[in-house]
Design goal:
heterodimer; A: about 160 residues; alpha+beta; Ubiquitin-like (UB roll); DNA polymerase, domain 1; 2 domains; 5-stranded mixed β-sheet; about 15% strand; globular; B: about 280 residues; Uridine Diphospho-n-acetylenolpyruvylglucosamine Reductase, domain 2; Uridine Diphospho-n-acetylenolpyruvylglucosamine Reductase, domain 3; Enolase-like, domain 1; 5-stranded antiparallel β-sheet; 4-stranded antiparallel β-sheet; 11 helices; about 25% strand
């Protein structure tokens, strides 16, 4: 069973012909060559495949592709700013040692984005809850939490300057 | 995972019709965070899934004296609801402890019940809150108390075409307190044991007590024997010790990868006692 779907991907209207049983992750990686989201466990435990659907974090490995019809999907590739500038969350991950092997990073960045969109300055407990759906096999959690905290502070300061 | 067809009806009648046409092996899918995992693990291989996400009437949250939850309400909506946090703390606490943000953004309250895991975190709180379920099917609607819904691990009273459409929670009366506690290996884990308690107090005496526990029997369990022990008495240390002993006698746990029978029996008593204490402290 094949179907044509339309949705917004990283700000662009896209159309894709997909097999009904595909998950969003497969279509992103194989159809659109967006390989930022990774398949880790494939079962909703590790969070490596996390993307945003209508602004909410979801495990794209468990998200049936036909459900994205008419919705807006943001992957880590969609965070890139003008002139290929990294998003402040990505910058903070690089600057604060939030990355080791990097496999979990795109997913964690997306969960951090969803968290900071909802709560601009979360405390540590709230950050840890926000990334509770991620496993980092390098176990660099302390630096990841620190990176998100620094990113939040930087973005809040930036927001104040802009307003 | 094997290929399958995927249908997205916009109305309940359409969904029942599809299920009748597609035959015994087709399945309904809500948020999908359990059924898709079982399909990936090759435990089940339905040739067709009927998604309930496009049926608007299932996703509504409303009021009719108490609270009405459409079965497709995402757990995130329950977690964020100030009304649920204020009036039904045990449900709020249960949802907050369930899995992780990505799962709560798509998993639904109805899906959590329909999977009928003995450890389903939504079950004990809905049981102590006295929730009623509405089930729809080609022949019409029926309603039943949530504790009559479960038949065994993964089994409910739902007939093949039927869909759990809504959950009705009675209005909170003054003097009520409730609490949910869960024991997992790590936080946000599948429960080794979960427990909910609700009390309605009058002048220091417990007029109504409802206790429920999960993952210690083939279905989530109301502990009616222990409830009778509590009602009409003051929650003093002597009674709390009796509660602990009573719970150990009423549960029927198994040994599995998450825990042993002996541990579950022992600790379910402790967890229920603490839930009861917390519910009493919550009385407003």
């Amino acid at each position: 069973m094949k179907k044509t779907i339309r949705f917004v991907l990283n700000g662009y209207e896209v159309t894709a012909e997909v097999a009904a049983h595909k998950m969003l992750l497969e279509v992103l990686r194989e159809g659109f060559q967006l390989t930022g989201a990774k398949e880790g466990c494939g079962q909703g435990e590790c969070g490596a495949c996390t993307v945003l659907v209508d602004g909410l974090s979801v495990n794209s490995c468990l998200y049936p592709i036909l459900e994205v019809e008419g919705r807006s999907v943001t992957t880590v590739e969609g965070l890139l700013g003008e002139g290929n500038r990294l998003h402040p969350i990505q910058e903070a991950m690089v600057e604060n040692g939030g990355i080791q092997c990097g496999f979990c990073t795109p997913g964690i960045v997306m969960s951090a984005k969803a968290l900071l969109d909802e709560i601009p300055l979360p405390d540590e407990a709230r950050i840890r809850r926000g990334i509770g759906g991620h496993l980092c096999r390098c176990t660099g959690y302390v630096q990841i939490v620190e990176s998100i905290r620094r990113a939040a502070e930087k973005m809040a300061a930036q927001g104040e300057r802009d307003s | 995972m094997k290929g399958f067809d995927y249908f997205q009806p916009g109305r309940l009648e359409e969904a029942y019709g599809l299920m009748e046409t597609l035959g015994a092996e087709a399945g309904y899918i809500a948020g999908g965070t359990d059924i898709l995992v079982r399909m990936k693990q090759k435990i089940i291989a339905p040739p067709a899934l009927i998604s309930l996400r496009r049926i608007e009437e299932l996703a509504r949250m409303g009021r009719d004296r108490g609270l009405l939850l459409g079965s497709m309400t995402p757990l995130r909506a329950l977690e964020k609801s100030e009304e649920i946090a204020a009036s039904y703390p045990c449900l709020s606490q249960a949802v907050g402890s369930l899995a992780n943000p990505q799962i709560r953004n798509v998993a639904t309250v109805g899906g959590n019940l329909c999977n009928a895991a003995p450890s389903a975190d939504c079950a004990p709180p809905l049981m102590v809150l006295g929730a009623t379920l509405t089930i729809g099917g080609p022949g019409g609607e029926r309603t039943l108390p949530v504790e009559d819904f479960f038949e065994g691990p993964g089994r409910t009273v739902l007939r093949r075409e039927e869909i759990l459409t809504g959950i009705a929670i009675p209005e909170r009366v003054p003097g009520t307190g409730s609490a949910f506690l869960k024991l997992g290996r790590v936080s946000q884990d599948i429960a080794v044991i979960n427990a909910a308690a609700l009390v309605i107090m009058e002048g220091g005496v417990c007029r109504t007590c409802r206790l429920a526990v999960g993952a210690v029997a083939p279905t989530p369990l109301r502990l009616r024997g222990v409830e009778r022990l509590v009602e009409g008495r003051r929650p003093d240390p002597e009674l709390l010790a009796e509660v602990e002993r009573g719970v150990r006698g009423e549960v029927n746990p198994i040994t599995d990868v998450r825990s042993t029978e002996e541990y579950r029996r022992e600790v379910s008593g402790v967890l229920l006692r603490r839930a009861l204490e917390q519910a009493v402290r919550d009385v407003r």
